[in-house]
Amino acid sequence: MKRLRFTLITDGSSDKALIPIIHWLLSQHYPNLPLDGEWADLARLPTPPQNLAQKIVIGSYLYPCDLLFIHRDAERKQHDVRVAEIRQAVDGAQEILDEKQLSLPRHVCVIPVHMLEAWLLFDINGIRQAVANPNGKIPIQLPPLNRLESLPDPKSTLYELLRTASELHGRKLKKFRPQTSVHRLAECIDDFSPLRKLPAFQSLEKEIHGIDYL
To answer: Which of 145, 151, 185, 190 is a plausible cystine mate for 130, CB 3.0–4.6 Å?
Structure first.
């Protein structure tokens, strides 16, 4: 059976939590197609790539795929600016590959606003499961969905919610590392459809929808 293989290239290791989100989106548009997704772990290479174009070249070589997802956090820049940066890096990567008569796979821009964590701030049950406290009783107040893309620091907001949901105290709370729960949280969420109300998520789904893979 035909499969769809995708590779995710990210700014940092914590952003590999985008894999379940991408997998969910692809399954919405290719429901009968088996999916294989990998995160390009490039930081551990003897000589890690120094810029995005190099990441794209090395990532697409080491992790062959049909679709290449290229991530940049918007942070303080406009979405279109980040898209332009990715397109420029893709052009630079293709110039390198032209010398070897190779071509890049089709690519998709992944640009959360301001950062990935904003896309994980909507599922209370997922947050409780991510910290191994699914039956927790402490109330958790999530930011309004329509404000997720305007939060000044979604990472800090998510980390604090994870600490609260853990219901740990004292020494155990001090040892708790919320960053290790972020990827688990993405895997605990079964339905990312609420994010369809967010412009940045809409842009990602529109780009995926525009790729006729079958």
So the answer is: 185
For residue 51, report the phi and psi dihedrals to the nearest 5 degrees: -145, 175
Residue with tokens 């109330």: 139
pLDDT in 10s for each residue of the chain, 214 residues: 588 999 999 988 889 999 999 999 999 998 988 999 999 999 999 999 989 999 999 999 999 999 999 999 877 778 889 999 999 999 999 999 998 888 999 999 999 987 899 999 999 999 999 999 999 999 999 999 999 988 989 999 999 999 999 999 999 999 999 999 999 999 999 999 999 999 999 999 999 987 765 5
Decide if 181 contacts 130 (C-beta within 8 A).
Answer: yes
**ω into 79 cis (within 30 of 0):** no
pTM: 0.93
Pick from 130, 129, 186, 118: nearest CA to 156: 118
Using alpha carbons only, give the angle 51, 55, 60 rounded to the nearest 5 degrees: 160
With contact defined as beta carbons under 8 Å apart, do 135 and 99 qualify?
no
